[in-house]
Amino acid sequence: MEAGGSEPRKEQTPSRVLHVRNVGPDLTEEDLRVWASPFGAINNMVMLRAKNQALCEMKEMSDAMNLVQYYSVNPARVKGFTLRPQYSAHQCLTGGNQNTAEKPSRIILCSFRNVITPVTVDCVHRLCAPYGLIHKIVIFSKAAGVQALIQFAEEAGAREAKARLHNQIWNTEGMLVEVQYSNLAELTVNQNSLIAWDISKSTSPSFPGFAGGLGLGLGPYGTAASAMLNPFWCNPLSLRRCRRNTNSLWLRQ
Q: SS3 sequence, 37-90?
């Protein structure tokens, strides 16, 4: 199966950075590390979800050359997609534009894979709140799937959330969370809703998922009309209560 992406470049100057095409939508960073592991370790990686591609920087030039040589003759299928590696025009992933999203920040970007239960600000807050005070949440859907931007009060909270949540299974439905730093300086929320939340706009000192008609609440959004209009709607009758397990992840009961 082909996941799309640009045609291979003719230029094949050896590089430690590999441009991997046809990366399936459910393929994770860990999957790529396992795929490359027979030839060496991946030092750095940038997932280009919208293009179904990835940039992988190998530790040694010989590792990259051996990988490209082998998989060019013996292509490997990972989760139904045949990965197609080639040399990248980049010689490293440190300090370039491809790596700006990994500069430490108090804002993180969470990408959710295998989404079954709709994602709301209440769900995201439950996931990230154990690691620090959250100021803002914005949820959106792109070609890469459902994503959320979470702005912490302090960079330390974002750093802890990234370290604990990246490549972890969130719930019993198998929802995978991938976390990276955002290059945004500030999130903008015009009005609190199911998919956007700003602590400064909350009408209650508690999280509005219970008091302001959001998420599990029974306020103005708890109607059939809002369920049809909002693709991230959580039905308050079917959304089960959450609990926290020993791995600090929220699981559906």
A: CCCCCEEEEEEEHHHCEEEEEECCHHHHHHHHHHHHHCCCEECCEECEEEECCC
